[in-house]
Design a protein that fits this description.
With about 230 residues, the protein is α+β, with helices and mostly antiparallel strands. Helix 4 crosses helix 5. The longest helix has 10 residues. It is globular and about 40 Å long. The protein starts with 12 loop residues before the first strand and ends with a strand.
Length: about 230
């Protein structure tokens, strides 16, 4: 397979992913999916969930935000929580910010590993690969998992179908140098797969790429989370 000849984040090496509490139901007429809803007892946030293959995913980014720090805060070991484009320490202010409801919170790796509620967990890279394989393989999985339309990704592409209802969004990231980057250009999600003492695996989808990609990132970066059911 060919390697992609681009770098979205200058300090993150992107490689192609070669391998490929209450609930209610709702019938979605547009894509004919049967969604369920899970309410997180910790904060009352409700998430749309969906069975895709043998897995049950939250099909929204996690919004669990017990605290929030400025974007220039960073740690490999202390859990840190960010909100896109927010520079402060007030959780109510962060939750009322423009991007929180749509894109959720951003987490360094230490926070990501424990942020999912009981009964759910941060997926490993292998679990993301399982999802990509089920929807047709990593080469085309991004277009089948990204939310269709131009409201968020900002591109016109008939190949972006969201036919499985996963509705991946380009919520960007928080870099370790305190910069927010990538809104409407790419989405990044932590996995629970550790590479070494300083790095872990993450998942990337881009506005101009059809696939699901995997890379190695330093643990200080703030990425989104999708939780999968235990």
């Amino acid at each position: 397979m060919k390697k992609l000849n681009f770098m979205i984040l200058p300090i993150i090496m992107v490689v192609f992913l070669a391998f490929t509490s209450s609930c209610t139901k709702d019938e979605d007429g547009e894509n004919n999916k049967t969604y369920e809803y899970y309410t997180d007892p910790r904060d009352g946030e409700t998430y749309k969930t969906l069975k895709i293959g043998d897995q049950v995913w939250m099909v929204e980014n996690l919004r669990y935000l017990p605290e929030v720090v400025e974007p220039d805060s960073g740690s490999q070991t202390i859990p840190l929580f960010y909100v896109l484009a927010y520079d402060g320490n007030s959780v109510p202010e962060a939750e009322a910010s423009t991007y929180f409801e749509t894109y959720g919170a951003l987490y360094n790796w230490a926070a990501a590993r424990s942020a999912c509620p009981a009964g759910w967990h941060l997926p490993t890279e292998a679990e993301w690969m399982q999802l990509a394989d089920f929807v047709g393989g990593a080469i085309i999985a991004g277009n089948k998992l990204k939310e269709s339309g131009t409201a968020h990704w900002g591109v016109v592409n008939d190949d972006i179908t969201d036919e499985f209802g996963f509705s991946a969004l380009p919520g960007g990231c928080c870099l370790a140098n305190g910069l927010f980057d990538g809104l409407e250009d790419f989405g990044t999600w932590w996995t629970n797969t550790e590479i070494d003492s300083t790095g872990a695996s993450y998942i990337l989808m881009t506005d101009n790429g059809s696939g699901v990609y995997s890379g190695r990132s330093i643990k200080e970066h703030g990425f989104s989370i999708r939780c999968v059911k235990d």
